[in-house]
Design brief:
Shape of chain B: globular
Largest sheet of chain B: 5 strands, parallel
Radius of gyration of chain B: 13 Å
Strand order of the largest sheet of chain B: 2-1-3-4-5
Helix content of chain A: 40-55%
Oligomer: heterodimer
Order of helices and strands of chain A: HEEHEEHHEEHEEH
Largest interface: A-B, 24 and 21 residues
Number of strands of chain B: 5
Number of helices of chain A: 6
Strand content of chain B: 15-25%
Structural class of chain B: alpha/beta
Number of helices of chain B: 5
Shape of chain A: globular
Largest sheet of chain A: 8 strands, antiparallel
Helix content of chain B: 40-55%
Structural class of chain A: alpha+beta
Distance between the termini of chain B: 10 Å
Radius of gyration of chain A: 17 Å
Number of strands of chain A: 8
Amino acid sequence: MIVSHYSEDEYDYLKEIFNIAMGKAASDLAVLLKSFVDLKVPDIEIVAAENVVDKILKGSVFKETEIITAFKQSFHNSASLNGVAVVIFDNKTKQSLSDILGIGDTDSLEEIDSMLELSNMLIGACMNSVSKQLFTDEMTFYPPSMICERQELQKMAYDVFQRSKLEWEYTLLAKITFKLKDKKFLCDLIISMSEEAINNLHESISKILSENI
Amino acid sequence: MDCSILLVDDSKVTRKIIKKILNELLKEKISSFTEAGNGVEALNLCRQNNFDLMFLDLTMPEMTGYEFLEALMEEGIKSNIIVLSADIQPEAESRVKKLGAREFLQKPIDKKEAINALKRMSIL
């Protein structure tokens, strides 16, 4: 599929859309965990399929050899905005979650359940915001699932994002880091969207910009 | 009133949208627009100029809006600051107001909200 070319303004606006979506997800996280999220500018880029693993490893807040636990969830809306989101937690965050959530001693299954719920919340808040800003309707989500537990980041990246696993020639890759100011909580949210989504986002952004600037 | 305005946002498109809205609302009251893409650029501009009104983003590279407000406070630079941000955490508004911002608006900018903020600040 031919992928739309984004002008400088269109690409800038796309980043703002994800910035606003990140803000919504951070607000939900801050309320749930009674803390404050230190936000950084999200990374957004259209990436050729063969470069996705490299981009994820270089852009992650975690080292390639960091032991992580990761979850994924697919999504789509009526405007064919579809893709997959992955949330990555490091081991320190996994181990301190029961303290952060104030739920006392937890076993490994409960830790995983908590991370699954947090992943669902972050992905839901973020992608619903993107969808509502541009298409007015909400996303439909498939149930989230665990990709790996206590595995090196690079292994997870190759298992999920290596060229042979991807259906698209190009993907819109977004990376957002959530770090709590006063607690041991760190995670990356990675969003990979289809070529059809890239084109539909482009069409919508182009229309909005022509009406507003 | 001749109003000099500083727009601080890493998004050029957002600066264009704010500018368009302010041109509609304040028309001939505006004496100048100056733009900055991050807190460092904005701070340098504030050291050399007095701005009557600022629109300030919070999540920016180099220096965030929070850090910029702290720097202004440390250097005793005062202005009418409207924070316009995607950072809508409950603590965000109280934090920026403690750091000297007068108004807090959520992105994307809503014209009615901007009008209300400017009226509360007696600029409109």
